[in-house]
Design brief:
This protein is an alpha/beta fold. The chain has 10 helices and 8 strands. Helix 1 links the parallel strand 1 and strand 2. The chain is globular and about 45 Å long. The N terminus is likely disordered.
């Protein structure tokens, strides 16, 4: 595991770090509410595909449970460069999700140069906010694919702010947040200078032990599915199955405890 950061702070004055739980159904939303998560990301086929767009029925059901639902809009697994017809599907799915009651949508589109595709994102954002003016737009871990392609993090963040994106989900361009911890801290600092309206949400391989270091790095939110790894919580391997309620509760408590400890001007 990468080294921890000793200084602790709230990333931006007035913004207390929050927990977002990745879920696949109404039971996941209920669990998130029970443990005190701030919101959920609703997706389908999380273990099989790392998430694709859920059905409109699942979206409507989840949105009726009282917790803010952010719907993943990803029409297929694979890369994040989309043909015109695929972009049309993303736009249609995003607006349908918001019309069904979603608080926001989670998207990720890359241009041929490997960075965030600003024209495509502007189109999606405009369509989303035509349905829901305060729709919250999150850019998912396509951001990490952009960093892997050599795109400068500050440039990528500037593009997202220019497109109207509110939040980016990232592991710091690494396979998981433990490996990307130092880069996450740099991304937070760069974001404050070049894209201050874009929140940084850490996600990818989040463990209970890692939460204090992520908050010390200055992230605005922690994203997790709270699914135990095959072979144990501390072991390697993929995550599978449903969220572990006890783990979800411990993660929520860790975020809340560190956030409370670090509150300040």
């Amino acid at each position: 595991m990468a080294g921890t950061l000793s200084s602790r702070r709230v990333p931006v004055a007035g913004i207390v770090p929050q927990l977002e739980l990745a879920v696949e159904n109404a039971d996941g939303v209920r669990l998130a509410a029970a443990v005190g998560a701030a919101r959920v990301e609703l997706c389908a086929a999380l273990a099989e595909t790392e998430g694709i767009t859920p059905s409109i029925g699942a979206i409507g059901q989840a949105c009726g449970l009282g917790l803010p639902v952010h719907v993943l809009v990803r029409p297929r697994p694979g890369n994040f460069t989309y043909a015109p017809d695929e972009l049309d599907v993303i736009e249609r799915d995003a607006t349908a999700a918001l019309a069904a009651g979603a608080a926001g949508v989670v998207v990720g589109v890359l241009s041929p140069d490997g960075g965030p595709d600003v024209p495509a994102l502007r189109r999606i954002v405009a369509a989303a906010r035509a349905v829901k003016p305060d729709a919250d737009i999150t850019f998912h871990r396509a951001f990490d694919a952009a960093l892997a392609a050599g795109v400068d993090p500050a440039e990528a963040l500037s593009r997202l702010e220019d497109a109207g994106v509110a939040r980016v989900l990232t592991s710091g361009g690494a396979p998981d947040c433990a490996t990307g911890l130092e880069m996450l801290g740099r991304i937070v600092q760069q974001g404050r200078r070049t894209a201050p309206s874009v929140q940084i949400m850490a996600g990818g391989g989040v463990t209970l032990a890692l939460v204090p270091s992520l908050l010390a790095a200055g992230v605005h939110a922690v994203h997790t599915s709270a699914r135990p790894r095959r072979g144990g919580l501390a072991g390697g391997g993929d995550r599978s199955g449903a969220a572990d309620p006890a783990l979800a509760a411990r993660l929520a408590a860790a975020v809340a405890t560190d956030a409370s400890t670090n509150e300040g001007p």
